[in-house]
């Protein structure tokens, strides 16, 4: 992303009045929760009417989820009857993914299931906001691949470079890959842009270089995924949790450095940011020989209240000891919120971290950013339809 393009896009994706009012209320609740946490106290604000949304069964699924939906997500070998089948060889109703999405019936109710058979699909796809409740699944992220190469260097605005964009609520993707092959020389080149509320990705891959995953807006959950890139490759203005995933830092172009997260939170009261929990942060194979000569960081503050929390991750030795990188001079250093808890690996040593970061959190404060507390503060994960860890993954 760049400053000019980023400012243009944030205007287009600004929250509506209702969401802003909600953010104000949540800021009050969050402030009280943090204060009590510092005193080893907790605040139970779980409304009775929402209680079931947060309760999980023994397999980690929300108890409100139907048995049918659990099977759809949990059993990769289950024979699912899709509404549409996409196949390059003509064995399905469609040869292109976009055609299957455009066939979504106007008055459709319930899930609309699209099965994309193994193959490389070179196309640009947008799921508009009217096409809700789509489940898009493939034969695995190494077999079913949606690819593109639009990039900023060729004159395309970052927002428009995305290979796959979804604006619809309750979108689910499973066992599929999204990639942008522009390379580091293309600069901003998005593989996946996600804007719809309650979007969920399971066993998926997002591959690119700069700006790979544009977590554009609203609540998003990623689990068992693989996300690769170089500069600011997880960015946006959303409320995002990435859990049990592999974060692969690639070899950047000349005079470039690697930054994993660049969150765009612009107001303190916005319940937005990026949380990585129980992920592996590793260099790709081609970076390994030069990994100690290329500067790689966990995050930098793209906007005034940029928020990135790293919990229980395994961090490789290639991450710079200071951990975080300023955006421009001292800009946003006093207002951003970068923090860690329970990470391990050589790159997790926090004793030489930047002084303007929030450092290593106490356990009771870090718990505010685990799924259960994150749900209480932001109410964003109940409808994801995925198994998830409610609290810490390690004792």
Automatic annotation (TrEMBL):
Keyword Hydrolase assigned: yes
Pathway where this protein functions: Glycan metabolism; pectin degradation; 2-dehydro-3-deoxy-D-gluconate from pectin: step 1/5
Listed GO biological process terms: cell wall modification; pectin catabolic process
Matches recorded under InterPro entries: Pectin_lyas_fold (IPR012334), Pectin_lyase_fold/virulence (IPR011050), Pectinesterase_Asp_AS (IPR033131), Pectinesterase_cat (IPR000070)
Protein location: Secreted, Cell wall
Pectinesterase catalytic domain residues: 83-377
Catalyzed reactions per annotation: [(1->4)-alpha-D-galacturonosyl methyl ester](n) + n H2O = [(1->4)-alpha-D-galacturonosyl](n) + n methanol + n H(+)
Coiled coil: none
EC number in record: 3.1.1.11
Keywords linked to the UniProt accession: Aspartyl esterase, Cell wall, Hydrolase, Secreted
EC class: hydrolase
List of catalytic residues: 232
Gene Ontology MF annotations: pectinesterase activity
Pfam families in the record: Pectinesterase
Family named by the database record: In the C-terminal section; belongs to the pectinesterase family. In the N-terminal section; belongs to the PMEI family.
Protein name: Pectinesterase
Phylogenetic placement of the source organism: Eukaryota, Viridiplantae, Streptophyta, Embryophyta, Tracheophyta
